[in-house]
Recover the amino acids of this structure.
């Protein structure tokens, strides 16, 4: 950079001397040939200096400023437009690999966001049509050093959050991650559980359809997060291993008078690290393999006590899933099966008999989905998709004795057909139609607008 | 098309590289890995003029920069190929990578030098990077076309692939201009 600054006056001096040489030459009646030779020599030298100057300027402008208080995530093509480096560290970083065009440091702090605006119009009961600012999320990632960062997301659901409004304000993620070795990293804080395909990749640009699929909403309570410690390993054979200890569910939150537990059993008793009861902890593990390009195969397991020492009875919640995604060429296929169980529900339900929503013993769900990128031009891309889901949030109940044990619910089956239209990388417009086999009153058209950066 | 020796730049730039956990290798190590037979790597800079940048744009490639520093792998004075290092943004963080290009303009190797995102480390997997080997400026070099995506790392895959396509096109332009031989 200093070298670059030193070159600046050189350029001016050179330009001035060129002009002087030209005018002076005529005054001294030198031959035209001599003049031309001298001019050519000067022009060549000037061109050389210009080239070096341009190179210096490029190197200077390519080093993003680590001291920038907030830098919006730069577009991929605009790395070179980041603010010039102004610190010794940045200069040293860009200098540590000779001829290396970039910096070893990215921006210190990056603002991130995603949002979803959804319109749902039931075809049979269209008086229930809604338009919703479903999610508005602001987050930041701040890098303390090359190995350590904090990642956060703050979410507002349904537009307005107040005592008289339906919205909620939630901290969706807030964790510190430390890269300990090139393979192993440790996370601590409030993080998304590595379960299924959607939970950790839940931005609207990352999934097909206006709404998140039912299996990963009703059975896996996306966006599911817990507080705790997690170890992550990324191996060269394509294996990613995650495991840790976290907070667990609180079964005492079960509201037998509400239907919420029928819609998402675990979603109704999750704690989201909001003064979470933490007598009982949970363990989890996840394995994902991406050793063949375009293929992802994975599984996860979560198990934790959920009575939180509030009752004499103990209950353990266990959830597992297996999933796969395959993206050959323009195709995008995915499938997932998940199953959850709650132990000792008979003891809990015995006190709830007579209420509409007892605690299920098991619940599960399965889906298969196919999408095809039909058309693309520059950043535009149109991808129609179809998804078939089957899920049962109350598959079976523990035996309470004859006449008292509720029958397991019938599995709901939903077919969704629609398309994602990518307007630009990070912006998606979606439309789909959802047909419910059990409860046809829920059949609906959906429209959505989403972004993520 | 101009080639300028960047010796003065190198003199300023030389200092010990720090060992960061997310930096898998240095540009020098990548160059040696790609051209193990080379006995020297000359630092050069390819400078594109306005018309060449326009040519890139016509191919749907954002030239991004007029100047492209690169390493020329040499053995006993003969050129073996080129190594270009570059950065792209993954989702929110920079990914540093190097592309080795053989004398015929085809991709010899792609190496990830540093990766900092919380997800998508898998782009450094050999199986993913191998997809680039042998492809050249006439190849599509796009995610979902001739390069398979990695689930959960779509943005990282897309941006590295876009970057490789740009580098291959720049080298092809330089070779057509007769400067890189």
């Amino acid at each position: 950079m200093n070298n670059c600054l030193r070159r600046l006056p050189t350029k001016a001096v050179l330009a001035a001397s060129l002009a002087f040489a030209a005018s002076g030459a005529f005054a001294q009646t030198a031959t035209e040939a001599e003049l031309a030779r001298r001019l050519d020599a000067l022009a060549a030298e000037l061109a050389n200096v210009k080239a070096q100057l341009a190179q210096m300027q490029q190197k200077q402008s390519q080093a993003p400023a680590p001291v920038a208080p907030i830098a919006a995530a730069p577009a991929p093509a605009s790395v070179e437009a980041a603010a010039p480096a102004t610190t010794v560290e940045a200069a040293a970083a860009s200098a540590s690999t000779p001829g290396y065009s970039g910096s070893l440091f990215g921006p210190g702090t990056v603002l991130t966001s995603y949002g979803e605006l959804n319109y749902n119009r039931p075809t049979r009961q269209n008086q229930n049509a809604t338009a919703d600012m479903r999610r508005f999320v602001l987050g930041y990632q701040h890098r303390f050093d090359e190995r350590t960062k904090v990642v956060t997301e703050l979410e507002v659901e349904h537009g307005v959050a107040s005592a008289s409004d339906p919205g909620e304000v939630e901290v969706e993620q807030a964790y510190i991650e430390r890269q300990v070795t090139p393979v192993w990293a440790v996370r601590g804080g409030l993080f998304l559980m590595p379960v299924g395909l959607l939970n950790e990749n839940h931005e609207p640009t990352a999934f097909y359809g206006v709404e998140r699929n039912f299996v990963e909403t009703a059975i896996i309570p996306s966006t599911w997060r817990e507080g705790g410690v997690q170890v992550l390993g990324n191996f060269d054979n394509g294996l990613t291993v995650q495991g840790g200890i976290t907070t667990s569910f609180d079964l005492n939150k079960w509201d037998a008078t509400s239907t919420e537990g029928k819609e998402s059993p675990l979603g109704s008793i999750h704690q989201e690290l909001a003064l979470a009861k933490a007598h009982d902890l949970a363990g989890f593990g996840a394995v994902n393999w991406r050793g063949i390009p375009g293929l992802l195969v994975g599984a996860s397991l979560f198990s934790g006590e959920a009575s939180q020492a509030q009752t004499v009875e103990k209950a353990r919640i266990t959830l597992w899933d297996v999933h796969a995604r395959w993206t050959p060429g323009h195709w995008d296929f995915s499938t997932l099966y998940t199953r959850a169980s709650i132990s000792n529900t008979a003891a809990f339900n015995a006190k709830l008999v007579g209420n509409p929503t007892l605690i299920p013993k098991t619940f599960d769900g399965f889906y298969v989905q196919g999408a095809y990128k039909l058309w693309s031009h520059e950043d535009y891309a149109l991808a129609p998709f179809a998804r078939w889901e089957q899920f049962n949030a109350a598959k079976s109940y523990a035996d309470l004795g004859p006449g008292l044990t509720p029958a397991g619910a019938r599995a709901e089956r939903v077919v969704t057909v629609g398309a994602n239209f990518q307007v630009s990388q990070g912006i998606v417009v979606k439309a789909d139609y959802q047909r419910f086999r059990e409860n046809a009153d829920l059949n609906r058209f959906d429209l959505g607008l989403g972004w993520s950066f | 098309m101009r080639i300028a020796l960047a010796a003065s730049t190198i003199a300023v730039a030389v200092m010990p590289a720090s060992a960061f956990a997310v930096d898998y290798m240095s540009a020098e190590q990548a160059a040696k890995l790609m051209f193990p037979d080379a006995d020297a790597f000359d630092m050069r800079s390819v400078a594109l003029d306005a018309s060449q940048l326009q040519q890139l744009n016509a191919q749907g490639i954002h030239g991004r920069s007029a100047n492209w520093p690169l390493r020329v792998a040499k053995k006993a004075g003969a050129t073996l190929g080129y190594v270009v290092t570059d950065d792209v943004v993954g989702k929110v963080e920079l990914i540093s990578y190097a592309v080795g290009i053989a004398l015929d303009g085809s991709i010899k190797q792609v190496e990830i030098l540093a990766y900092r995102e919380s997800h998508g480390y898998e782009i450094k997997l050999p199986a993913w990077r191998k997809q680039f080997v042998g492809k050249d400026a006439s190849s599509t070099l796009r995610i979902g076309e001739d390069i398979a995506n990695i689930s959960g790392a779509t943005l990282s895959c897309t941006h590295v692939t876009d970057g490789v396509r740009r580098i291959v096109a720049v080298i092809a332009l330089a070779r057509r201009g007769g400067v890189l031989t």
